[in-house]
Design goal:
This protein has 30 helices and 19 strands. Helix 20 packs across helix 21 (526-535) and helix 27 (656-670) crosses helix 29 (679-687). The structure holds (S)-3-Hydroxyhexanoyl-CoA (3H9).
Length: 699
């Protein structure tokens, strides 16, 4: 038997223990081990029943995701689950930690299930672009009813043991020692003559899932899961469960699972699963690096961004001192925070008492001396180097030794900011994304002198406030904005070339972006981009560069906030504005920009490939540690859909050679300034390699 499975008999009950750290994934060795254990159980006269349990911190967390790109090794998971069910001796699954995906499917193959109260369960395959393909789409509806099963599989959410008990997914909660409790329960079941309950033989409660329900469900899904492939496949599996006999429906599940597994969506989403975990690993800052204690935080600037940042800490129960230059600004800021929390109360996401508790964690001040005790100070002032320098000079005077001094700059040179202090090792960038209380991304910027434990602390803080922290290096715009600028630049140029903004936005939206580039600019404010362009010290001299941003900003058309930007607004609804295209034509004429017929394919190439080309430079310069980090940044901070995998995974799936050829095509049209292929892109194209392979080789 595999060394990942232990088999022991205790007073007539066989205990089959899976021991495959870290999360007991159902790898080939575990599957074979389970198979062998079940054979042994059948032949073992000393065992009347069995308990399936796991060693370590969790029950089975699912199929082994690393195996999905390799040929299937028998026995495949669905066969193992079926073998559990077919056992002639009663098998009880004993769950602690999390029973996820193939883990819960294995438990549902067992005849009875018990769990400790702290256990969690779910079928999160959808997040990997998959469906529960080890009989889960057929078993969960039989235990929990069609509607509940559908909701759990489409949301991928984890439920606690109590909810699982109420839903009929498990039959018993065990307080205290799980192993002893499960063995005792198995014995009880035997003694009471409980039948071997095979889930596949149960009927499905479909009383609340008629044709009209499915029609409405699919309609909602088209909106909520726009563009994703797997959710629709899951619906089909549940419909098959209701219409077809178990075996036939299982064949449907198998076919639809294989379609999901082979899809680019699943490749992309599985890539992100590992990329998000890898992003937390910093090669020269080992996991053992002790983080500094962060028990209280100060935020300088109570505007929209500062307030949003403060809310993150308050939500995690961390007290925040909020500093503004004057009382009026402070009161305005606190008012906005209170309003945001009130909206949460109105929507039932927060109780009124919690609102007051949250507000009580905020200490407003206009006096820098009140920052003396802060463990972490985050500066969120105007994006201007002189102002930032003044703030850091002052922080150096008032903050205690060992305090971490962070800047929320979105583009500026952190090293210059750190140089204003006598402790550049304590200075770091923490770049939040608007709206700061909602967006998941936190770019953590490492300066030339930033200490390892300061980096470790910032990464830990990100996790504590439920952000996805990604470490980046110093350059203008860091990783995200630096790569976003070419995307914006091309959208802007296309406007001069005669492509209406609503068309570019629609094409980007249909590709999967949450919003098109023009809509994003109008939302953020064209003036923000205008100021950023002016802060870019070594920006190449190009009169065409983001020309429309300048013209519209100078006209006072700043975006949604002024009722007009690239679009005109009726409330929050963007309306195409023919005046803007008139201006674009006039500007194009003055600048000698030709009017072009541009295909949808070209729109995507210019938006994405310009971004990818910059990404290749970012990687070669070491500004991002790995291509996966860039991908994590774009799906968590820039509204790129997870099923595209992020820009660098997308590049790998298209092929760097094809991207490079397209970049050359645009270079021939526009010249070297913006479209010279990055040396790394050329290198990968020549070698027929990928960003991922390049990154692996460097480890
Ligand atoms: C499936 O089951 C398909 C079936 O329906 C059909 C098949 C036919 N495989 O997250 P952590 C690694 S699809 C391989 O940092 P936590 C992870 O990469 C699967 N590796 O810990 C990391 O490695 P490293 C459905 C896995 O405590 C380490 O374990 N299941 C797997 O924060 C620790 O992970 C899921 O989608 C895996 N399945 O969270 C559940 N899972 O240390 C996926 C984890 O080298 N897993 N690893 O970076 C999770 O959600 C979390 O890992 C879990 C623990 C909640 C379990």
């Amino acid at each position: 038997m595999s060394d990942k499975i232990h088999y022991q008999v205790e007073d007539g009950i066989a205990v089959i223990t899976i021991d495959n750290p870290p999360v007991n994934a159902m790898s080939a060795a575990v599957r074979q081990g389970c198979w062998d254990a079940l054979e042994r159980l059948a032949a073992d006269a000393s065992a009347r029943a069995a308990v399936l349990i796991c060693a370590g911190r969790t029950f089975i967390a699912g199929a082994d995701i690393t195996e999905f790109d390799k040929p299937v090794v028998d026995p495949w998971l669905p066969e193992v689950v079926e073998k559990f069910e077919a056992a002639e001796k009663l098998v009880v699954a004993a769950i602690h930690g999390a029973a996820l995906g193939g883990g819960l499917e294995t438990a549902m193959g067992c005849h009875y299930r018990c769990a400790v109260p702290g256990a969690r369960m779910g079928l999160p395959e959808v997040h990997l672009g998959l469906l529960p393909g080890a009989t889960g789409t057929q078993r969960l509806p039989r235990l929990a009813g069609a509607r509940k099963a559908l909701d759990l599989m489409i949301s991928g959410r984890q439920i606690n043991a109590k909810e699982a008990l109420e839903a009929g997914i498990i039959e018993k909660l065990i307080d205290g020692d799980l192993r002893a409790g499960a063995i005792a329960w198995a014995r009880e079941l035997l003694d009471s003559g409980a039948p071997i309950k095979r889930v596949s033989q149960l009927d499905i409660d479909a009383s609340d899932a008629d044709t009209a329900f499915f029609a409405e469900y699919e309609q909602n899904l088209a909106r909520k899961a726009r563009g994703f492939f797997a959710p629709g496949q899951i619906v089909k599996c549940v419909q098959a469960a209701l219409r077809e006999p178990y075996r036939e429906a299982l064949a449907t599940e198998r076919r639809l699972f294989n379609e999901c597994k082979a899809s680019t969506h699943s490749q992309a989403q599985r890539h992100l699963f590992f990329a998000e975990r890898e992003a937390a690993k910093i090669p020269d800052v080992p996991k053992t690096t002790p983080a500094r204690e962060v028990n209280n935080v100060a935020v300088i600037g109570a505007g929209t961004m500062g307030g949003g940042i403060a809310m993150n800490f308050v939500n995690a129960g961390i007290p925040v001192t909020l500093l503004e230059v004057d009382q009026a600004g402070l009161e305005r800021g606190l008012g906005v925070i209170r309003k945001n929390y009130s909206i949460a109360v109105d929507k039932g996401r927060m109780r009124a008492a919690q609102l007051e508790q949250a507000m009580a964690l905020l200490s407003p001040t206009t006096d820098y001396a009140d920052l003396a005790a802060a463990d972490l100070v985050i500066e969120v002032v105007f994006e201007n180097m002189d102002i930032k320098k003044q703030v850091f000079t002052r922080l150096d005077e008032v903050c205690k030794a060992g305090a971490i001094l962070a800047s929320n700059t979105s583009s500026l040179d952190l090293n210059q900011i750190a140089a204003m202090t006598k402790r550049p090792e304590d200075v770091i960038g923490m770049h939040f994304f608007a709206p700061a209380n909602i967006m998941k991304l936190l770019e953590i910027v490492r300066g030339e002198h930033t200490a390892g434990d300061v980096i470790a602390t910032a990464m830990a803080v990100a996790k504590r406030i439920r952000k996805v922290g990604v470490l980046v290096g110093v350059c203008f715009g860091f990783v995200g904005n630096r790569m976003f600028f070419p995307y914006i630049r091309e959208a802007q140029l296309m406007m001069l070339e005669g492509v209406p903004p609503q068309r570019v936005d629609q094409v980007a939206f249909d590709w999967g972006m949450a919003m098109g580039p023009h809509a994003v600019m109008d939302l953020s404010g064209l003036d923000i981009f205008y100021k950023l362009n002016n802060e870019w010290q070594d920006r190449p001299d190009d009169p065409v560069y983001c020309r429309m941003t300048s013209v519209l900003t100078e006209m006072g058309r700043l975006g949604q906030k002024t009722g007009a930007g690239t679009y005109r607004y009726e409330g929050r609804k963007a309306m195409p504005d023919s005046q803007v295209m008139d201006i674009a034509r006039r500007e194009a004429q003055a600048l000698g920009v030709k009017q072009l017929e541009i295909s949808d394919e070209e729109i995507i190439e210019r938006l994405l490939y310009s971004m990818i080309n910059e990404g290749a430079r970012v990687l070669a310069e070491g500004i991002a540690i790995r291509p996966g980090d860039i991908d994590v940044i774009f799906v968590n901070g820039y509204g790129m859909p997870r099923y595209r995998g992020g820009p660098m995974k997308y590049a790998d799936m298209i092929g760097p050679d094809k991207i490079c050829a397209a970049v050359e095509k645009y270079r021939a049209r526009y010249g070297d300034l913006w479209w010279t292929p990055a040396p790394l892109l050329e290198q990968l194209a020549r070698a027929g390699s990928s960003f991922q392979a390049w990154s692996e080789q460097r480890k």
